[in-house]
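Task 17 of the worksheet. Students: predict the tertiary structure of the chain below and write it out as structure tokens. Keep your answer in the requested format; marks are given for formatting as well as content.
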Amino acid sequence: MMGPRDAPETGPRVSVIVTCYDLGRFLDEAIGSVLAQTFQDFEILVVDDGSTEPETTALLADYRRPKTRVLHSANRGLPGARNLGASNTTAPYICMLDADDKLEPTYLEKTVAMLEADTSLAFVSTWLKTFGDEAWEWTPERCDLLSLLDTNVVNGAALVRREAFLAVGGLDESMRHGCEDWSLWLEMVARGFNGAIIHEMLFLYRRRSDSMSRVMMRDEVYFENFRTLIQKHPESYRRYVGDLVLRREERIGSLMSAVHDLEREHASWLTPALATRREKFHALDAKAARRARERDRESTLARLAEQLEQVERERAVERSQLVGRLEEMERDRHAERHQLLARLEEMDRDRQAERARVASLAGKLHTDRQRIVQLDAARTDALCRVQALHASMSWRLTAPLRVAYRWCYRLLGRQV
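Model answer:
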């Protein structure tokens, strides 16, 4: 791999490729987060992936921001738009940012510094925080091959060396429904291009109702994408299938333990709390009985009863949701396990068939060799016989007869 300063300094160090399809309402925020970076040696290329939304097309028709240019294209899908952007930039480092996401101000400074300091790294990712419809944090610890085979632990805006990106052929443009970046990191790590994760919240990922990450988690889409990953990286999944199953079993065990903890919490905390509420209710009821106005007493009782019922309903809903999620994950685990085992059996059958074909060809080759040896022996024996005949006394004695025979044919006009 080239060192960080092997290439001539003829342009920016980082190309930030911002893909945009009908997301013009968010674009200024994304571009603004790049322009606000503490590391300023970059260019920005906005790839308009065939947007049709009037607001977006009007914005991109004459979009002017510092260090920024726009490339218009027919709709190619996210991986195709990113590949197009990479082919139209030249910086040694590439950052691919969706038009609705943002970078913290030190994102480029810290990721570039890590790639500059360690030439064995091909890409650097970070932790992320979500914003928009949801707010939570994502903190993967490592991005080795086993971790990537299990789940995508690299954020989509990870800074990657251009030469490594091109060495694996870029993103698979057929994966238009998601996981194309997961496949890219898998391919890179499988080929020896290592990555690292900075344990800081430097990437801001917007969650929307129609975010691709939500679409990808639908059962049929997720399983299809995961099947594609297995087909693209069969050797890696075959090698680590046992470890992957164990990781999934550990995860399911943790979820079962969490459900058990909730059940214990229900028994140790909620039940006593409900009993306390009931005691308070009875105390209030007794106090209300002493009141002169029956209407106030009934109102208080009704309010407390409603509160108790609301708490019980909420707990019932929470437990039902957790149990449903556990059952869903159990089904997912069985389905994934079945698919992996079926694929392994199919690969074993193919390998056995290939071995049988090779053995058949080897047997045929051995037979042909024996036949050649027999033919060579017969030829040698025939030559020996001819030589023996020419050396015999009868051959010499009949020589005049053969000469006379030839002359007779010549006199008759025939050439012997």
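Marker's comment: The chain has a mean pLDDT of 87. The first helix runs from residue 24 to 35.
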